[in-house]
């Protein structure tokens, strides 16, 4: 049996907020006799903001499955079930779905090389634990409750069954164990998976990945952390036990009753924009480990925080602030906080957090050390300074640290070298490898962002330019590149077939619009290139009679700026931000190239945008990894290694 370390969740006292007065919309003044006005719908009462930092941080229990001495395998059963959990002591409890009744789920901890068999039992029952609402008023998405004047219920959600499948995000495992999105299981059935854990020490996380409803299922509470340890990490003597703390960040919204009082019912409220396309979810409440704006009592010594952004769409930029909201002195922050790891492994050396704050996109992780002796006796908090949705911003407070006054005896010192085994990858020194091209289209051009799988057109004269699905790219010092779309929707023909053990460079070109966190299953990679492009040449195309004929480049997408890759961006990743995170003119595009090896498993996998609403809509595609000798039996079926690829060192 695995060792189970229980940490009790904080008790929460439900406080009913005072009843706000109902407001009515005044009728506009009439300048001429008017017919009797229709009855007016009362305005939705404002919900008082929740008081930050009143509830303690909830720490999930840890599962440490021990391998059988005869087989060398460990076994674990994790069961999902409905639970009622308070998100804040001023909110009624919320019905949620949870792994082992915990939100987030228990942290699974294993040693490298331990084969772990997990039975993911679906023990869910009862009604779906959230409601889905669309609004056409930007300000409404950042307020709790339903506005009958502008909001619409999605009644299909009430019919959803508890249909779930677990993906261990970042795991090197075979396709049969990866959590294929269509292979969800109903209540009473079990998803069986075996994880080899043959990878370097890293911070993984598990979450639901069911086709069409990942955004909703994850919002119900289906997420947890998974840590792999190795000898290199152990030798560092990092803070552990009660001083190694998982932090699962996300945002949430809740419904209200007719008097504007929060009910605790989870609400997935999104904006349907002028193009009639629903945007991703953003909520008014910042949640850490299932608690809205919690606090954490810490001693004046070193701590380790294993962090994941588990939001549907929110990007967090965490900046340390005093109680009055003013930023803490950057020199103090640089002394206190150091990042030592990214998604898929440890950094070569500790990196101070960026002065503007630590940014995490959905799916990204950070391994952070904090020396609270530098902040003795202070109350400081992480505030979110990222610009996310339209309309009013939520309360920025995320997590407060209450640092003890007393000095603590702590023998730990920050190592100058974290991962001696780290090797920096580059295009020039990598083994022969394939090249893939993925194009992310701007919503302004296509109505909603799409993900196009491309192949290289060797002879541009063989295609009509401009035409639907053709993108031309002018790179610095390179011939004009012509790309042709070969797949777009999830069920289109699989065109990327990677050789097991082979190396590949994926070039992901965002032609403008939102930043997309791009995630590839199975592999870890390093970012090798980041460039800005002028993407205004990508436009909607029309026939001579004015009818639409698709989307493509009228003039080439053109290189503008080379961007440096520094600090934690040099680390091992499985999710990378593609797009300009600073305010940029319309049409500003970005190219990010990542390099990695397709080893650790074979079978069918997926890559996708980790904004979950984008993933559920259209921004997800399959790929296949096959043993080389199997591919070589019928090479014509696999295009000599896959569409869109070129071996050697072409850039």
Rounded mean pLDDT is 90
Strand content: 35-45%
Strand elements, count: 41
Q: N-to-C terminal Cα separation, in Å?
A: 51 Å
Low-confidence stretches: 1-41, 640-650
Supply the helix-strand structural class. mainly beta
Shape: globular
The biggest sheet, with number of strands, parallel, antiparallel or mixed sense and barrel status, is:
8 strands, mixed, barrel
Could you estimate the helical fraction of the residues in percent?
under 10%
In DSSP terms (H or I, runs of 4 or more residues), the helix count works out at 6
**Biggest sheet strand line-up:** 27-28-30-29-37-34-39-32
How would you describe this structure to a colleague?
The protein has 651 residues and is mostly beta strands. Helix content is 5%, strand content 40%. It has six helices and 41 strands. An eight-stranded mixed beta barrel has the order 27-28-30-29-37-34-39-32. A hairpin with a 5-residue loop joins β14 (254-256) and β15 (262-271). Mean pLDDT is 90; it is low at 1-41 and 640-650.
Key terms:
single chain; 651 residues; mainly beta; 6 helices; globular; disordered N terminus; disordered C terminus
Offer a concise description of the structure:
The chain is mainly beta and 651 residues long.
């Amino acid at each position: 049996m695995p060792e189970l370390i229980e940490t009790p969740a904080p008790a929460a006292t439900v406080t009913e907020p005072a009843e706000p007065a109902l407001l009515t919309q005044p009728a506009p003044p009439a300048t001429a006799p008017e017919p009797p006005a229709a009855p007016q719908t009362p305005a939705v009462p404002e919900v008082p903001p929740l008081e930050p930092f009143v509830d303690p941080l909830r720490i999930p229990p840890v599962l440490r499955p021990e391998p059988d001495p005869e087989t060398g395998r460990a076994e674990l059963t994790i069961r999902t079930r409905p639970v009622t959990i308070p998100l804040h002591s001023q909110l009624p409890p919320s019905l949620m779905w949870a792994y082992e009744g915990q939100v987030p789920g228990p942290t699974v901890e294993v040693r490298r090389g331990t084969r772990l068999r997990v039975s993911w039992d679906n023990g869910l029952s009862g009604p779906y634990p959230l409601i889905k609402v669309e609004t056409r008023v930007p300000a409404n998405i950042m307020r709790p409750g339903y506005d009958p004047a502008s909001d619409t219920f999605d009644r299909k959600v009430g019919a959803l069954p508890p249909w779930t499948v677990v993906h261990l995000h970042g795991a090197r495992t075979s396709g049969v164990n990866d959590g294929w999105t269509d292979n969800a299981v109903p209540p009473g059935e079990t998803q069986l998976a075996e994880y080899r854990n043959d990878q370097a020490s890293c911070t993984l996380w598990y979450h639901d990945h069911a086709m069409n409803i990942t955004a909703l299922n994850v919002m119900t509470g289906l997420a947890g952390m998974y840590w792999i340890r190795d000898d290199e990490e152990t030798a560092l003597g990092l803070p552990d036990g009660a001083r190694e703390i998982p932090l699962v960040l996300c945002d949430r919204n809740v419904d209200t009753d007719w008097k504007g009082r929060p009910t605790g019912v989870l609400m997935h409220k999104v904006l349907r924009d002028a193009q009639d396309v629903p945007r991703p979810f953003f909520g008014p409440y910042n949640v850490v480990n299932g608690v809205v704006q919690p606090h954490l009592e810490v001693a004046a010594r070193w701590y380790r925080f294993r962090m994941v952004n588990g939001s549907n769409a929110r990007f967090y930029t965490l900046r340390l602030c005093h109680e009055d909201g003013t930023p803490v002195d950057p020199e103090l922050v640089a002394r206190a906080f150091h990042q030592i790891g990214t998604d898929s492994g440890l950094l070569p050396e500790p990196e101070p957090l960026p002065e503007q704050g630590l940014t995490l996109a959905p799916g990204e992780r950070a391994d952070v050390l904090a020396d609270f002796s530098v902040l003795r006796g202070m109350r400081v908090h992480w505030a979110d300074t990222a610009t996310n949705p339209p309309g009013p911003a939520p309360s920025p407070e995320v997590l407060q640290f209450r640092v003890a006054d007393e000095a603590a005896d702590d023998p730990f010192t920050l190592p100058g070298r974290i991962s001696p085994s780290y090797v920096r990858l580059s295009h020039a020194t990598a083994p022969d490898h394939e090249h893939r091209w993925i194009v992310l289209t701007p919503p302004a051009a296509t109505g909603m962002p799409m993900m196009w799988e491309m192949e290289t057109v060797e002879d541009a004269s063989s295609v009509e330019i401009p035409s639907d699905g053709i993108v031309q790219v002018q790179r610095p010092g390179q011939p004009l590149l012509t790309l042709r779309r070969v797949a777009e929707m999830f069920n289109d023909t699989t065109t990327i077939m990677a050789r097991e053990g082979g190396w590949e460079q994926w070039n992901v070109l965002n032609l403008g619009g939102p930043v997309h966190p791009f995630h590839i299953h199975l592999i870890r990679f390093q970012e090798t290139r980041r460039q800005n492009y002028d993407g205004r040449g990508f436009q909607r195309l029309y026939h001579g009679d004015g009818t639409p004929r698709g989307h493509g480049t009228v003039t080439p997408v053109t290189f503008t700026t080379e961007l440096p890759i520094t600090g934690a961006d040099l680390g091992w990743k499985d999710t990378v931000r593609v797009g300009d995170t600073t305010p940029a003119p319309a049409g500003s595009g970005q190219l990010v190239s990542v390099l990695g090896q397709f080893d650790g498993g074979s079978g069918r996998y997926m890559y996708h945008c980790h904004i979950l609403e984008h993933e559920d809509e259209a921004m997800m595609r399959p790929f296949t990894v096959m043993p080389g000798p199997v591919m070589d039996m019928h090479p014509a079926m696999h295009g000599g290694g896959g569409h869109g690829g070129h071996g050697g060192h072409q850039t």
